[in-house]
Every structure is written in structure tokens, then in C-alpha cells.
Design brief:
41% of the residues lie in helices and 23% in strands. It has a single domain, classed as Vaccinia Virus protein VP39 (Rossmann fold, 3-Layer(aba) Sandwich), CATH 3.40.50.150. Helix 7 links the parallel strand 4 and strand 5. It is globular, with a radius of gyration of 16 Å.
């Protein structure tokens, strides 16, 4: 079956088969710059416990493990192919118990309340099936005063070709693209505070940071 634009975008949601392997390789390469830009907004201590939701090909996990050099990094993805790719890329960290990767959905994260200092979501939140409920689930597993970082290279209203193409195909492939203000509104509605959003409009890059209140 030929790789049509819609089929390629669907593979980005849940990679599978040979095409999925190719898509994951592309993700690791193409998302690296926006990931580095976004993570510069996040203070990750060397001893932090971090969760990456939608770990894809695993390169973000590798970056996080280097930043939290004496901590632990967990990754989840609902694609079996992504979980396998992430484990392979991070085999050294996995072998010494500093990285843990499991197959799971953001709708039901397999962790106790208040488990993480930081949760990252790179190029994934626009695929989440029930964004308000999924944000509350992320909030649940964060420690009080823990931070969520949503990083992506598309958002509604951005002046970039990638964002315009994604907006045109969003309904067809099941994406939910938000404007800057809608990102802020959804995070506040999910119970986060101290919401800060930065963008690079001509690239379509967005980084939305939010904090779980300390008294929760």
C-alpha cells in the first residue's frame, strides 16, 4: 500500500509494521530540534524522576536521561513498535535501571499519584483521545509543584507550512489542534496553574508549561 500523506500521519499517531519503523526513525531525526528548544524551558534537576508520554522512537528519553543524570526516566506509548524502538535506543540506560518503558495509554497511566517531578509530552498531545481527561490524568501522576511540558511543532494559527497542512487534515486523521489561547484554557481547566507558553510562529513550534498546585 503506498504511503499517502494521511496514512503517514496516522502512522505518526500509532506506528506499526515496516512503515512504522521508518516513521519512528524520521521522528527521532525531525523532532530533535524542537525537542531541544522546548526542553530548554524546563528545569530538570539531575535527580529528577521524569515521565515522557508518547515516547515515540525514544530520542527524547535519551535526552532526558542525560539531563536527569542521577534520576530515573519513564516512558509510555500505546504503540508496541514505539516501545520496542525506545528500549533499543536506550538499551544501556534500561540495563542499569535508569530508564523504564512500558506500553500504556495517556488515558490510564500505570503509575501512582504524585510519582513524577516532570512530565513531558513531545509531538503527541494533539493525538490524545480525550484531551481534558488526559490532562487531568497527567496531573494525577505529577507530584505537587510538578511541571508538565507540552512541546510540538504544530498548533492552530501558526504561520508555518507544517501547521497549515496539519490543520487542513486534522479532522480526517483525528488530530485536535489548539490555538495558543486554547492550550492555556485547557491546562487551566484541567487544574494546572502558572501556565506559560512560548512559540516560534514561523516554525509552528509551541512549548506550554504548567504546574500542578502545591496544595493538591
Amino acid at each position: 500500500m503506498p504511503e499517502t500523506p494521511v496514512r503517514r500521519m496516522t502512522q505518526c499517531q500509532k506506528p506499526s509494521g515496516l512503515l512504522g519503523r521508518i516513521v519512528l526513525w524520521r521522528m527521532n531525526a525531525s523532532h530533535s530540534k524542537v525537542t531541544d528548544w522546548g526542553l530548554r524551558h524546563v528545569a530538570i534537576s539531575p535527580t529528577a524522576t521524569v515521565l515522557d508520554v508518547g515516547c515515540g522512537g525514544g530520542r527524547t528519553i535519551n535526552k532526558l536521561a542525560a539531563m536527569a543524570a542521577r534520576g530515573r526516566v519513564y516512558g509510555v506509548d500505546f504503540s508496541e513498535r514505539s516501545v520496542d524502538a525506545t528500549r533499543r535506543l536506550n538499551v544501556r540506560f534500561v540495563s542499569i535501571g535508569r530508564v523504564h518503558v512500558s506500553q500504556a495509554s495517556v488515558a490510564a497511566l500505570p503509575f501512582r499519584n504524585g510519582s513524577f517531578d516532570i512530565v513531558t509530552a513531545i509531538e503527541t498531545h494533539f493525538w490524545w483521545p480525550e484531551l481534558p481527561a488526559n490532562l487531568r490524568e497527567v496531573r494525577r501522576v505529577l507530584k505537587p509543584s510538578g511541571r508538565l511540558a507540552i512541546i510540538a511543532e504544530v498548533y492552530r494559527g501558526a504561520n508555518s507550512t507544517t501547521s497549515r497542512v496539519a490543520a487542513h487534515q486534522a479532522a480526517q486523521v483525528g488530530m485536535t489542534l489548539l490555538t495558543v489561547d486554547e492550550h492555556r484554557d485547557r491546562l487551566v481547566e484541567a487544574g494546572f496553574d502558572d501556565v506559560q507558553i512560548d512559540t516560534v510562529d514561523d516554525h509552528g513550534w509551541i512549548c506550554a508549561l504548567a504546574t500542578k498546585p502545591s496544595d493538591v
